Amino acid sequence: MKLPSLNKREKIVVVSGIFVLLLLLVWFVLLTPYFNSVNRLERKISSQQNGLDKALLMHAEINALRHQLSKANTTSKRKKRPLFSQIENLAEQTGVRDQLLSMRPQPAVVQGKYKQQLVDIRFKQITLSQLVRLLHAVEYRSAGVQVKTMRIKPRFEDHSLLDVNMVLMLLEKL
Q1: Does 1 reside within a domain?
Q2: Beta bridge partners of 151
């Protein structure tokens, strides 16, 4: 079987058709997968960059916490007083000693290299300003003492007075 000979116009149409088919083949077989993989890799790079940024922020936070812990350890070595007496002293300094209903030390808990001391304290008929002064003193005057839990209830007869139960905690390095 012999193919008929084509005139010049038909040859141009056939060659241009083959050229278009080759372009489509190159586009769909080579270029489209290439562009898809480049986009996927760019998205992956940006997500990895976000993860790296978060890791750097967490590293900075960890370093700050380590610095605070070492600072607390050095100050607690200087002030080697029991937590119970520190809290009693803070209550006296802030003027809430009269409202102090009870203070009960809890058994110390050892976690790794640290010993956790807990004291459960209760106040009756304390004002909000007195509570704020006490919390400020715990935060800034005591060496490493933290509020672990706190429950505040307004008094039924006078809503300006509060009943407060809180557990204060001190971590010491062994």
Answers
A1: no
A2: 165
Q: How many C-beta neighbours within 10 Å does residue 53 have? A: 10
Q: Are residues 110 and 70 in the same domain?
A: no
For the beta carbon of residue 123, count every other beta carbon within 10 angstroms.
23
Q: For 122-154, what is the HEC assignment?
A: EEEEEEHHHHHHHHHHHHHCCCCEEEEEEEEEE
Residue 66 and residue 111 in one domain? no
* 163 CA to centre of own chain: 31
- Please state the pTM of the whole predicted model: 0.54
CA distances from 104 to 33, 57, 122 (A): 70, 39, 9
Place of tokens 């998205």: 43
pLDDT in tens, 46-97: 999 999 999 999 999 999 888 887 776 665 555 567 788 888 888 888 888 8
Domain termination residue (choose one: 78, 93, 117): 78
